[in-house]
């Protein structure tokens, strides 16, 4: 299971600044996923060769102070349940507030590691001021300045010490397919349909699946692990928190999966949260299949499917080489097609192409349409090879890698897809000096 570190606390204590600092430690995904919840950030960080996901739980804009405080408390509860470690951030310049007392009260009851971080400790005089936070009864206080970065090293050392040791996965040889999507699109129902029995509780209330479930599937010549992220713990008045919970679930599932089966509701189409999940899977270089459920509820003519596909691809551009399967779990239409397509995408992701074949095909393509000259300089690509890794990654060796721009890079990616079939898989291309 991936390690998730959640930053909790009241607004304006510097949670986002710390988040930005932690995720900058490497040039990995930092997704400002404004469509998933208002002002929600999550991204990857690395410290001493241990990778983890950081979530900034900040940012609510509501009219009533009462709802505002309830929202923060709910986020703390969700973070406690889903995260592996919690950073409780406070502001040394304002001391302890009533809301923070309440948060500390909740945190004292958890068995998860909690790190009380006093922010804005910008000089030695303020180090003594932070002693007041010992009143929380949550152990050591970590003095930091998220603006300058002082103290963050000691904090990270303490956090990764509490991570569980990395364990070997006994099912690592099996493909892992994660079923992801917004609440109530039919994720549990499709798993029940795959298995031919009610493995999960299914109700029309969004968010009835409590935990992410791993299911070993072995039928009809297919064997793989299904990861069901179906949804959320409870229905709540604060919509942001439902989505926040599903985001944490989805991140966990994506980290573990090889192929992400993104379920979309045919009656509402592709929404912003679906697009965010799609881009997160793409940036994590996972295989992707889009499964359009409830297709039986859509009025159709002979052009409906094509139109729907075009609309989806328009929203997902530039990465549009993704299989789309139209299904109705209720009517049991094309549900096993989804498994076959996911298996094909898994095979595409694992595909290795011989260097000789790669050069034969791609050098001819490049000869027909060479990179455009820049400032009178001509770029010559001499050699191509596939780099080792879990997803298709290619290195193009040339004389002037800095002169190759994005449009040409996209052209080469499309040619690789056309000639070697990487449907449903993000392809990464590097240009190196020869």
3D architecture notes:
It is globular, with a radius of gyration of 24 Å. About 10% of the residues have low confidence. With 434 residues, the protein is of the alpha/beta class. The chain has a 7-stranded mixed beta sheet with strand order 2-3-4-1-5-6-7, with helices on both faces. The longest helix has 18 residues. Helices cover 35% and strands 22% of the residues. The protein contains 12 helices and 16 strands.
| Biggest beta-sheet profile | 7 strands, mixed
Name the helix and strand elements from N-terminus to C-terminus, one letter apiece: EHEEEHEHEHEHEHEEHEHEHEHHEEHE
Number of strands: 16
Q: How much beta, percentage-wise?
A: 15-25%
Class from secondary-structure proportions: alpha/beta
Number of helices: 12
Give the neighbour order of strands across the main sheet: 2-3-4-1-5-6-7
Helix content: 25-40%
Provide the gyration radius in Å: 24 Å
Poorly predicted runs: 25-40, 59-64, 199-211, 231-238
- Mean pLDDT figure: 80
Distance between the termini: 40 Å
Shape category: globular
Summarize the structure.
This protein has 434 residues and is an alpha/beta fold. It is built from twelve helices and 16 strands.
Question: Any chance you could write out the topology, listing elements then pairs?
Answer:
Layout lengths: L3 E5 L6 H9 L6 E3 L8 E7 L2 E7 L8 H18 L2 E7 L6 H11 L5 E6 L4 H6 L11 E3 L8 H10 L14 E6 L5 H9 L17 E7 L2 E7 L10 H18 L2 E7 L6 H12 L3 E7 L10 H13 L7 E3 L8 H15 L5 H14 L12 E7 L5 E6 L7 H15 L7 E6 L1
Parallel strand pairs: 1-4, 1-5, 5-6, 6-7, 8-10, 8-11, 11-12, 12-13, 15-16
Antiparallel strand pairs: 2-3, 3-4, 9-10, 14-15
């Amino acid at each position: 299971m991936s390690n998730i570190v959640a930053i909790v606390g009241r607004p304006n204590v510097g949670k986002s600044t710390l988040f930005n600092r932690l995720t900058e430690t490497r040039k990995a995904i930092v997704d400002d996923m404004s469509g998933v919840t208002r002002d929600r950030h999550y991204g990857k960080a690395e410290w001493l060769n241990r990778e983890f996901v950081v979530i900034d739980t900040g940012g609510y804009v509501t009219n009533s102070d009462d709802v505002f405080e309830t929202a923060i408390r709910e986020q703390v509860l969700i973070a406690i349940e889903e995260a592996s470690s919690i950073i409780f951030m406070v502001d040394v310049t304002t001391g302890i507030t009533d809301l923070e007392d309440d948060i500390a009260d909740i945190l004292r009851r958890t068995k998860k590691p909690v790190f009380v971080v006093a922010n804005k400790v910008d000089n030695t005089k303020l180090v003594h001021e932070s002693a007041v936070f010992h009143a929380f009864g949550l152990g050591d206080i970590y003095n930091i300045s998220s603006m300058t970065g002082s103290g963050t090293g000691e904090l990270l050392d303490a956090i990764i010490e509490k991570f569980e040791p990395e364990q070997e996965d006994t099912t690592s040889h099996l493909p892992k397919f994660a079923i992801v999507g917004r609440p109530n699109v039919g994720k549990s129902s499709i798993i029940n349909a795959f298995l031919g029995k009610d493995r999960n509780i299914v109700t029309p209330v969004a968010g009835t699946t409590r935990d992410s479930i791993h299911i070993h599937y072995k039928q009809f010549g297919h064997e793989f692990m299904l990861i069901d992220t179906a949804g959320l713990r409870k229905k709540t008045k604060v919509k942001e928190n439902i989505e926040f919970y599903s985001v944490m679930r989805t991140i966990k599932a994506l980290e573990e999966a090889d192929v992400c089966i993104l379920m979309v509701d045919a009656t509402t189409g592709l929404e912003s949260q679906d697009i965010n999940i799609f881009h997160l899977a793409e940036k994590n270089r996972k295989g992707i299949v889009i499964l359009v459920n409830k297709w039986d509820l859509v009025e159709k003519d002979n052009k409906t499917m094509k139109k729907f596909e075009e609309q989806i691809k328009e929203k997902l551009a530039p990465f549009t080489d993704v299989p789309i399967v139209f299904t109705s779990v209720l009517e049991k239409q094309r549900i096993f097609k989804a498994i076959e397509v996911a298996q094909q995408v898994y095979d595409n992701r694992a595909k290795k192409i011989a260097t000789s074949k790669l050069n034969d095909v791609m050098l001819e393509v490049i000869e027909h349409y060479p990179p455009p000259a820049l400032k009178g300089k001509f770029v010559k690509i001499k050699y191509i090879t596939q780099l080792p890794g879990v997803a298709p990654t290619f290195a193009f060796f040339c004389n002037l890698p800095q002169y190759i721009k994005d449009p040409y890079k996209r052209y080469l990616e499309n040619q690789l897809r056309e000639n070697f079939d990487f449907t449903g898989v993000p392809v990464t291309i590097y240009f190196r000096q020869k």
